[in-house]
Each structure stands twice: as C-alpha cells, then as structure tokens.
Design a protein that fits this description.
- It is a single chain.
- By secondary structure, the chain is an alpha+beta fold.
- The protein has two domains: 229 residues, Amidase signature (AS) domain (Amidase signature (AS) enzymes, Alpha-Beta Complex); 182 residues, Amidase signature (AS) enzymes (Alpha-Beta Complex), CATH 3.90.1300.
- The chain has an eight-stranded mixed β-sheet, with helices on both faces. A two-stranded antiparallel ribbon has the order 1-4.
- Helix 4 links the parallel strand 2 and strand 3.
- Helix 5 runs parallel beside helix 6, helix 10 crosses helix 11 and helix 10 packs across helix 12.
- The model has no long low-confidence stretch (mean pLDDT 96).
- InterPro entries: Amidase, Amidase_CS, Amidase_dom, AS_sf.
- GO terms for molecular function: catalytic activity.
- This is Amidase.
- Pfam families: Amidase.
Length: 466
C-alpha cells in the first residue's frame, strides 16, 4: 500500500507512480481532496477543472499501462502560474482585460512540464500582470498565506507558493522580475529559485532579448526544486540567449551529507551596507543563518558587493519593460489597471533612449563587479524579503521599523537589487518570527553556477533542520 500523501516530496510521488505503487488518478484525487480542504480559504489555485484533470490523469495511467516512456514528472498534479499561457486553459494574467482569455498554445515552460508528464489541474493566482509582490486581483481576489491566512502569500507567484506550502500541488513554476519567485517562497516557507539569465528559456516573449524577468521553479525542498529545474532548463532553438547546459545536469539528487559546507566562503549581509531597511525580526533570522553556516563548517564573513547603481537600473528597466509590454493596452483601457501598475507603465513612457542606455551600461558594471566579488566569496547570503508576511488587506507594507516606504517597490529592494546582477538567487526557509511566520534567506552565486547554488542551498537546508 502506498504511503504517499499530498505532503510527500515530489520525488517520492514520481517514484511511486513510476513503480505503480499509486496511480496518477489516485494521486490526483489526494490532491483534489486537499484543494477542496484548503483552497476556499487560501484562494491559491484558480480556474480549477477537476473533470479535465481526471481525464488527464486517466490518460497518463493508460499511457503508462501501454508501456510508454515516462517523463520525470509523470502523473504529478500541476498548476501553471496564471501568467503562463496554457493551451485550452483560461489564462487571465489576473486582469479583467484578459478574464476570458484562452490561449491556443502552451508557452515553453508549460510545454516542458507537460512533456515531462504532469497532469494540469488549474492555474495559480497572480497580481494583475504579475506586478507587485502581493497576490490580489479583481478577477479572483486575494491569495492568503497558509501559515496565517490573515497574511499575504507574497507575489507575484503567491498562488504557487501558497498552493505548494499547503500541499495542493507538489511542484510549481513561476517568474521573477523583482523577486516574484523568491519573495513568496520566503513568505510561505518554501523554496524558490531565480535562475541565471538564460537558464530557463521562455518563449514566446514580446521581446526575446529583454531578460529582466526570468521563469523558474518552486518546491517544498531544494531537492524537489532541482527535479523541476531539470525539466525547465536547457537550450531551445527559439530562444537565442538560452544557456547550453542540458536540464539533466540539475536534476540529479543533491548531496547534503556531513562536510558539504566545509570551507565554503560565505559573505553575509543583512542590508548590503545600508542599502535598505530590514525588519528586526527578519534581520535576526538572517544573522542566525550565518551561525548555521558556521556550525556546518563554512567560513562566514560580514561582506557585501557594491550595488549602488542597482536601484536606478532596476526601476528604469522595469518601467521600460512595463511600458513596452503593456503601454498600448493601458492606452486603450486607461482605467483598466490598478493604479500602482498604471503609474509604473506611464513612468516608462517618459524614459528616453539615454535613460535605457544608462541602465544597461550600469547593469554591465554590476555584472562585472559581482564577478570580481565572487573571486573572494562563493556565496552571498542576505534577506529575501525585508519584512515578514504582512496583512493581506494591505497592498504593500507602508513602513519598516517605523520608517515609511514611499512606493510599493521600496520594501522589495533586497530581492530586486540582486535581479539586475544576472546572478542565480535562491530563497530557502531559514526560520520564523516570534509570531511563527516563515522567513527565508537568499543565497546568491556567480552567473551560471546554478547547480553549485542548489548544492549549497540543500546543505544549508539540511543544517538548518538539525
């Protein structure tokens, strides 16, 4: 008899299906039961279609019975982010302007997940057009944190993180511009990776060469995240800047034994030298993560890279990106988007060519500075989010430690300053606030070193549990 539950690891579920200890249909029913139990309160999975999911699970079982070659995720229930086009499935982007949109084709991330054998059950909720790190929209409402439903699940992949943490799905995908994989992972106590630029190719895109936002995986453990990254990563002829490493190099189980962190050079910084305000409760968890690293054999030093141009770089490129992608839609529907998003799009319309050129020149400077920084250190550790999960009825935290936050981006600097370096960054659960709310630590490594970053994250994960 199978001992699989919705809280089992994705690797255990995939192995159980492959070994016929549980069928895809039985595994789906376990997750549909959990969705029925938790989703009415959390609102993480949207556009749920249980009948179509059952048909997909039955087809997966027939394929296996017929001797078909099984993908790495065969039979696992799956819900793509609602900004990822999914053929035949309502994909709203969290906007009333797209509330009835049903794509004809899968985008590449969904295509790869389906090819690996997943059974789609629905989508995961997002903010409007994935703008902002709190998941609410006029189409489906607010997604809530499974550890405290009065709190935000983060965003923009908040539905994904909430669904994962509550056992509604075993794996999830997302995207990350200013922290949209990392922030909700921290808020919900799961793992989220912003991969190196080019690691997870995306297609189609409105601008194939604009790489501020990337797609990536989320999971409940680092090892499960590596399994999904192995499916999502790898080159594709439609994506000219994709890195060439095949996905399989990331999917191998990760070593976590004694000595895995011996001699690792960790630069630890709570605020990147005063670059942002950090809630005292978050700072305490990040400092404790340094102790965890030291206890496991790492060499921990208080240090940080110079990222003084990163704020201007990110805000300029974000506004330019939003204007290029959504400006025509806003012009057609001037009252059709939330105010904070509309304001950012309009900021992009005021940018000059010189502004954008400056931002890209600065981005090159930041990348070179990070390259040199990582000749002295192996990993940078810092907060994922500057605050713990905030009340779900707020759009964003208005203050940190009593200091006002002027815009809905200010409290996300700890994530978005890393965005414009191009380096891979992973959010790993590191502790809790005195109120019991999850807090993650953000680990950053040199561009292209995603596998090594996963190894470090898995070893930290294991050490933090001891």
């Amino acid at each position: 008899m199978s001992t699989i539950t919705p809280d089992s690891t994705a690797r255990a579920m995939a192995a159980a299906v492959r070994d016929r200890r549980i069928s895809a249909r039985e595994l789906l029913e376990l997750h549909l039961e959990r969705i029925a139990e938790r989703n009415p309160e959390l609102n993480a999975v949207v556009s749920l279609d249980a009948d179509r999911a059952r048909a997909g699970a039955d087809a997966a079982d027939r394929y296996q019975a017929g001797g078909g070659r099984l993908g790495a995720l065969h039979g696992l229930p799956y819900a793509p982010k609602d900004t990822h086009a999914t053929a035949g499935w309502r994909t709203t982007y969290g906007s009333p302007l797209r509330a009835d949109h049903v794509p004809d084709t899968d985008e590449l991330i969904v295509e790869r997940a389906r090819r690996a054998g997943v059974v789609v059950v629905g989508k995961t909720n997002v903010p409007e057009f994935a703008a902002g790190s709190h998941t609410f929209n006029p189409v489906f409402g607010t997604t809530r944190n499974p550890h405290d439903p009065s709190r935000s699940a983060g965003g923009s992949s908040g539905g994904a993180a909430s669904a994962l943490a509550s056992g509604m799905v075993p794996l999830a995908d997302g995207s990350d511009m200013g922290g949209s994989l990392r922030n909700p992972a921290s808020f919900c106590g799961v793992v989220g990776l912003r991969p190196s630029l080019g690691r997870v190719p995306e297609w189609p895109l409105y601008n194939q060469w604009e790489t501020t936002s990337v797609g990536g995986p989320m999971a409940r453990t680092v090892d499960d995240l590596a399994l999904l990254l192995g499916v999502l990563a790898g080159p594709d002829p439609r994506v000219p800047h994709a890195l060439g490493d095949p996905g399989r190099v990331f999917a191998e189980p990760l070593p976590t034994g004694t000595g895995a962190l011996d001699g690792l050079r960790v630069a630890l910084s709570v605020d990147l030298g005063g670059a942002f305000e950090v809630d005292h409760r978050v700072a305490a968890v990040v400092e404790a993560a340094g102790t965890t690293f030291s206890r496991a054999g790492a060499q921990v030093v208080g240090a940080h890279p110079d990222l003084r141009e990163a704020d201007d770089t990110f805000r300029t490129l974000r506004a330019w990106h939003l204007q290029a992608k959504l400006g025509p839609l806003l012009a057609e529907h001037p009252d059709g988007m939330k105010q904070s998003l509309a304001d950012n799009i309009r900021l992009g319309a005021d940018l000059t060519g010189a502004d954008v050129a400056r931002a890209y020149t600065q981005r090159t400077t930041l990348a070179e500075r990070m390259r040199l920084f990582f000749t002295e250190y192996d990993v940078l550790a810092l907060p994922v989010s500057q605050v713990p999960p905030f009340p779900a009825d707020q759009e964003y935290p208005a203050e940190i430690n009593g200091r006002p936050q002027a815009t809905y981006l200010d409290w996300m600097r700890s994530a978005y300053l890393i965005t414009v370096t191009g380096c891979p960054a992973i959010a790993v659960p590191a502790g809790r606030t005195p109120e019991g709310l999850p807090v993650g630590v953000q680990l950053v490594a040199p561009h292209g070193s995603d596998r090594r970053l996963l190894e470090v994250a898995a070893a930290f994960e294991a050490a933090a549990r001891e």
